[in-house]
Amino acid sequence: METPGTWALLLVLLLLVLLTLALPRTRGHLPPGPTPLPLLGNLLQLRPGALYPGLLRLSKKYGPMFTVYLGPWRRVVVLVGHEAVQEALEGQAEAFSGRGMLATLDGTFDGHGVFFSNGERWRQLRRCTMLALRDLGMGKREGEELIQAEAQCLVEAFQGMEGRPFDPSLLLAQATSNIICSLTLGLRFPYEDEDFQALVRAAGGTVLGVSSRWGQTYEMFSRLLKHLPGPHTQLLGYLSVLATFAVQQVQRHKESLDSSAPPCDVVDAFLLKMAKEQHDPSTELTDKNLLMTVIYLLFAGTVTVSTTVRYTLLLLLKYPRVQERVREELIRELGASHAPGLRDRARLPYTDAVLHEAQRLLALVPMGVPRALTRTTCFRGYTLPQGTEVFPLLGSVLHDPEVFEQPEEFNPDRFLDADGRFQKQEAFLPFSLGKRVCLGEGLARAELFLLFTTLLQAFSLDSPCPPGALSLQPAVSGLFNIPPAFQLQVRPH
Ligand code: HEM
Fold first, then answer.
1. Once rounded to an integer, what is the mean pLDDT over residues 469-484?
2. Which residue ranges make up each domain of the chain?
3. What distance in angstroms lies between residue 304's CA and the mean position of ligand 1's atoms?
4. pLDDT above 60 for 76
């Protein structure tokens, strides 16, 4: 006799069959790849939780360009290694400048805001956000002073921990969050502020959620999973903390907007431009686009740089000789009291090399952020239909053995020439490239340099456990590589 469970199972199976029939059919002339199974796509080759290693394994068989199915419906062209990624993202920049899907976040952002939008909407939002950040001092002296001031606050917070081992994650994320909050909202918070801590933790929870094994499963089967209960409710909880905060802040700005004064932050700049364009039917400067841009900036500004600085500190604990060399260079070039500035970078080639090598080794966004073809495009002998999703595997560029000898080793000297001068590497692309290159690259590079050098000038860092026992393996690896938690002790010089 049929039980309700049997009916439910039959219903799910029927649903799956129907959804499989909706497989993408416009094949164009796509690169080869493993044959997808009905309902599962390439699940046998690509396990959630190990998506990136699975894609690297497939590239050994299929080469630098191949097609996979993430679940039954999502067809993706994967690009592996420096040559293929550069040829696409830079060589055919316009065609590869569309944004692909991030299933875990798409429900919330719904194609709005600078990160998730496409076409004319994206062009307007990117221009408006870039101009606002530039006018507020990004890449100029004002921006530098803002970061230097925050770096000093961070030093004081670390001083308060003297002698005791502590996990630096929260403080680092609060420092970088304060920088983006100042630029975007004109606000800075004390580190003890519990609401601020909750906001920063929500950004951290979001990054863990999208990168988790479940997050990767959701990328494959979102059409089905979005209708079922599961861990995405927790992710939505974190996002709603960020969203509630952003809504309040935008409202506060609307109430106090002074159209005769120059804008004090990104939201002001956006609102002023919105007012100017209110009668233009083609404007994309809308409330929803503003809100989604703010949420993304808060998220990216909080998690990316702090995670990278944290990983760099972990490397210095693991390799004490590298820490000594950085400190020797800082003290020799700047002394103990000259606050590091961006102009000092040229005098600190070894420190700069350590920062580059840490970013390279971490490969913060190993699979890149999904792109999509803005038009049907011929590439390397294949015809990729408009809308085809593309994963440019940035980790495979940063660890490309054709460019970086023994890519899995930490070796800052690869960024130095024979005379000890800093030397660029063309394949150093943690911020991606092309028209959709990271919008915060300039800000992120300035933050990384100033936060790291200020901390290292102030303190020696020790690990409570032997360096050999420290692991560098990511605690979570998905959309982001998240380094493991660790404790450190600081001693002032
Ligand atoms: C170490 C720090 C960072 C890294 C490694 C990083 C990396 C990336 C990557 C890989 C992308 C995707 C680009 C593509 O589509 O190919 C991206 C996009 C973006 N990033 Fe960053 N990012 C960092 C910091 C920041 C910061 C601090 C901000 C805040 C201003 C930011 C804002 C953005 C925005 C708005 C986009 C979307 C650009 C667009 O779609 O036009 N990022 N970032």
1. 97
2. 25-492
3. 8
4. yes
Tens of pLDDT, residues 147-168: 999 999 999 999 999 789 999 9
* CA-closest candidate to residue 364, choices 340, 395, 392: 395
Task: Quote the ligand 1 centre to 306 CA distance (angstroms).
Answer: 14
Q: Is the CB of 393 under 6 A from ligand 1?
A: no
Ligand 1 proximity of 79 Cβ (cutoff 6 Å): no
Query: For 254-398, where are the E strands, in sequence order?
Result: 371-372, 377-379, 382-384, 389-392
- Does residue 438 have its Cβ closer than 6 Å to ligand 1? yes
User: Class of the 25-492 domain?
Assistant: mainly alpha
Number of H helices and E strands in the chain, helices first, is 17, 11
CB atoms within 10 A of CB 164: 10
Q: Would you state the structure tokens that stand for residue 357, as one six-digit string?
A: 């090598």
438 labeled part of a ligand binding site: yes
Pocket test for ligand 1, best of 127, 210, 438, 448 (most atoms within 8 A of CB): 438
Q: Name the residue at shortest CA distance from atom 3 of ligand 1.
A: 304
CA of 296 to the centre of ligand 1 (A): 10
- How far apart are the CA of 441 and the centre of ligand 1, in A? 7
Q: What is the CA radius of gyration of the chain?
A: 23
Q: What is the pLDDT of residues 220-277, one digit of tens each?
A: 999 999 999 888 889 999 999 999 999 999 999 999 999 999 999 999 999 999 999 9
Going by C-beta distance under 8 Å and a sequence separation of 6 or more, which residues neighbour residue 160? none
Closest residue by Cα to atom 10, ligand 1, is 431
Question: C-alpha distances in angstroms, 196 versus 84, 177, 298?
Answer: 42, 9, 12
Amino acid at 234: Q
Dihedral through CA 73, CA 79, CA 80, CA 84, nearest 10? 170
What does the block give as tokens for 25? Answer: 């059919």
Q: What is the token pair recorded at 257? A: 């907007």
Dihedral sign computed on CA atoms, order 412, 416, 421, 423: negative
Comparing CA positions, the residue from 196, 153, 142 lying closest to residue 175 is 153
Give, using CA atoms, the residue closest to atom 18 of ligand 1: 438
Start-to-end Cα distance in the chain: 78
Residue 48 pLDDT > 50: yes
Q: Ligand 1 centre from 11 Cα, in Å?
A: 42
Distance, in Å, from the CA atom of 101 to the CA atom of 386, rounded to the nearest integer, reads 14
Core vs surface per residue 241-274: b (16+ CB within 10 A) or e: bbbebbeebbeebeeeeeeeeebbbbbbbbbbbb
Which letter does DSSP use for residue 485 in this model? P
Distance from C-alpha of 166 to C-alpha of 171, rounded to nearest angstrom: 10
For the CA of 444, the closest atom of ligand 1 is 27
